[in-house]
Amino acid sequence: DPETTRDTLFHEGNHLLTYLIDTQFRYPIWLNEGMAEYYGTTHIDEKGKFHVGGLQFGRIVSLRTDKAAGEFMTLREVLTTEQPEFRARHYAVAWSFVHFLMQSPEYAKTFRNFFANLGNNRDLDIEIKSYSNVKGSLKEVTPDNLLLAFEKRMGKSLETLEKEWLAYIEQAYGELSPAAWYLAARLALRNPQEDDSHVKTAAECYEKAVTLGIENDDCYRDYAEMLREGGIQEPGETVELFPPDIERAWDVIQQAIHFDPLQAANYLEAAEILVLESAVQDLDRAVSMATIAL
């Protein structure tokens, strides 16, 4: 998947550049991942110009899902969470807050300077720590100490910035496009959750994408497979969260074939749907579909 590969390269490349700012300083995770997510949307236009700061649609869906469920986390909760507990929901808040700061005419320059010179910030109580898997030692700061230095540099309390950030996300993201919902579904599946909620989220995002009329056969095929299985296949197990909907799967896969009648995978999925016992079962047509694929 070229698009996912590109995004990953920009994300991980930003981690490398952050490391090279000061190879002995360990950047706090919300700053490190928030900035990597910010630059992960970078794209290069036909003239070779780089464009940064695009929207992370999957993260927006995560934020809106948490808000609708009454599970929206405060900035202080997220920014004081350390690495072992830093999950997809935390990534969403970190990206959004960093995006708000980097896009703000009021805060962007100050925040960039804070980030770039963090290892030399005199307001930090830097601790020297050693790890068995790291050569030498690392300079680290506690989350609470970092936030004190951050508030001092930004000239406002975190709670004041949070109010401005919340107002920003209400007006900055707008309605998501069909393609954005599809990207959100893929992101959900790339971030498995212990309670399997990522499958439910992905299904909801796929449904949004197809209902809004996305013109992408991959989206329809992926969703048809999910509907056929009632969930997804993961390494070593099948995650089933809802009863298979074979008739709906058939409707969806026909859209995939419509948008790309030359894609063999679309016909294979159609064949798998048609062999199952349902109102749309048609073994002769299943054979025909499989033959076309081959």
Please give a structural write-up.
- It is a single chain.
- This protein is mainly alpha-helical and 294 residues long.
- 61% of the residues lie in helices and 7% in strands.
- The chain is built from 14 helices and 6 strands.
- It has helices at 2-21, 29-40, 57-68, 75-79, 88-103, 108-116, 143-154, 158-172, 178-190, 197-211, 217-229, 246-259, 264-274, 283-293, and strands spanning 43-44, 50-51, 127-130, 137-140, 231-234, 237-240.
- Strands 1-2 form a two-stranded antiparallel ribbon. A two-stranded antiparallel ribbon has the order 3-4. It has a two-stranded antiparallel sheet with strand order 5-6.
- Helix 11 (217-229) runs parallel beside helix 13 (264-274).
- The longest helix is centred in the first third of the chain and has 20 residues, at 2-21.
- It is elongated, with a radius of gyration of 23 Å.
- The two termini are 23 Å apart.
| Low-pLDDT segments | none
**Helix proportion range:** 55-70%
Shape annotation: elongated
- Put simply, the count of helices is 14
From the N-terminal CA to the C-terminal CA, the straight-line distance is: 23 Å
The strand count comes to 6
Query: The biggest beta sheet, please?
Result: 2 strands, antiparallel
Mean pLDDT equals 92
Instruction: Using the CA coordinates, give the radius of gyration.
Output: 23 Å
Strand neighbour order, sheet with most strands: 1-2
Strand content: 5-15%
Structural class: mainly alpha
Q: What series of H and E elements makes up the topology?
A: HHEEHHHHEEHHHHHEEHHH
